[in-house]
Write a structure and sequence with these properties.
The protein is an alpha+beta fold. The protein has four helices and four strands, in the order αβββααβα. It has one domain: HIV Type 1 Reverse Transcriptase, subunit A, domain 1 (HIV Type 1 Reverse Transcriptase, Chain A, domain 1), CATH 3.10.10. InterPro entries: DNA/RNA_pol_sf, Rev_trsase/Diguanyl_cyclase, RNA-dir_DNA_polymerase.
Length: 160
C-alpha cells in the first residue's frame, strides 16, 4: 500500500517527542538458525505486503520467541522507538467492563482491524535482519499507542 492511504480509512500515525533523535539499535548477534528464521519471517511479511524495503535511519531488532508447538514468533523490539513517541492517553475499558457489555448477547464476532501506518511514518518502524531492512506498512505489535488506536472508533482525521 504505497503512497496515500485509501480515503476514509483510519491510519496510524507515530508522532515523536519534539527534538528526539531517530531510534537506532545496532543489529544483535544471533545464532545462525535464529538469523535464518528472522530472514524467513521477514520474507513472509514482504510477500504478504506487511512490510516494504526501507532506506530509513531508524532501525530495531527482531526478537524471536518459541511457541508451544516449536515454531518461532517474531516481534520487533520497539522499546527505543516507544521511548521517543508522544504517548496518546485515552481511557481504556477494563476486561471486566468489556465482559459486562457482552453479557446477554447471543451472537459474538471478532474483527481483525490492522490499520495501515501513514506513509510518512513507516520509516520509523524499520528493523534489520542480516540481509535487509524492511519497514512496516501496517501497525505491528508492540507500538506504544497501538492499544489506544485499536480501542475504539476513531476518525482518519484524528492524527493518531
Amino acid at each position: 500500500m504505497a503512497g496515500r492511504p485509501p480515503a476514509g480509512r483510519s491510519v496510524h500515525r507515530i508522532k515523536l517527542i519534539p527534538g528526539s533523535a531517530p531510534s537506532f539499535v545496532p543489529r544483535y548477534r544471533r545464532a545462525p538458525h535464529l538469523e535464518e528464521e528472522s530472514e524467513r519471517q521477514a520474507d513472509e511479511l514482504l510477500k504478504r505486503g506487511k512490510v516494504q524495503p526501507s532506506p530509513s535511519v531508524f532501525g530495531h531488532n527482531p526478537v524471536l520467541a518459541k511457541k508451544k508447538d516449536g515454531r518461532w514468533r517474531m516481534g520487533i523490539d520497539f522499546k527505543p522507538l516507544n521511548k521517543i513517541t508522544a504517548k496518546q492517553k485515552l481511557p481504556m475499558p477494563t476486561v471486566e467492563e468489556i465482559l459486562d457489555r457482552l453479557q446477554g448477547s447471543a451472537v459474538y464476532s471478532a474483527v481483525e482491524f490492522v490499520p495501515p501506518i501513514h506513509p510518512e511514518d513507516r520509516h520509523k518502524t524499520a528493523f534489520h535482519t542480516r540481509s535487509r531492512k524492511p519497514e512496516y506498512t501496517c501497525m505491528p505489535f508492540r507500538l506504544v499507542n497501538a492499544p489506544a488506536k485499536l480501542q475504539g472508533p476513531q476518525s482518519p482525521r484524528d492524527g493518531w
